[in-house]
Amino acid sequence: MANAEKTSSGSDIDEKKRKRKLSNRESARRSRLKKQKLMEETIQEISSLERRIKESSERCKVVRQRLDSVEYENAVLKSEKMWLSSYISDLENMMVTTSLTLTHGDGDDQNAKAGMAAGDCRRRPWQLGCDSLQPMASFKT
């Protein structure tokens, strides 16, 4: 009888081992599937992020080009503003000189003629020989 119990308990042990092996195999299969799914999701996320990086880089490049263009235009306008301020100042000085010449009719005619000659270029900048407009020519692109 002891032998029968031993074989019966031995077959119980074998059955438990077989069930444990089967359970372990199923658990390992689920783990592999879970790992594979996680890997595929990670690969998809990496692809998505790489695509977003590329799109952002392209947008950044376009914005950088626009910024460079605006900065250049700003520099040109600042330079033009300085030139125009100087031009206005020269006109104001010419007006004062002309006004003084007219109020003091006995004044020095040479100074008045020189002031008018210098002002001629400012009044007719399209004529040749007006060197005061040379800085503006460099802004034409």
UniProtKB/TrEMBL annotation:
Compartment(s): Nucleus
GO cellular component: nucleus
Domain annotation BZIP: ranges: 14-77
Organism: Noccaea caerulescens (Alpine penny-cress)
Keyword DNA-binding: yes
Gene Ontology biological-process entries: positive regulation of DNA-templated transcription
Comp. bias (Polar residues): 1-11
Record-given protein name: Basic leucine zipper 1
MF (Gene Ontology): DNA-binding transcription factor activity; protein heterodimerization activity; transcription cis-regulatory region binding
SUPFAM superfamilies, per the entry: Leucine zipper domain
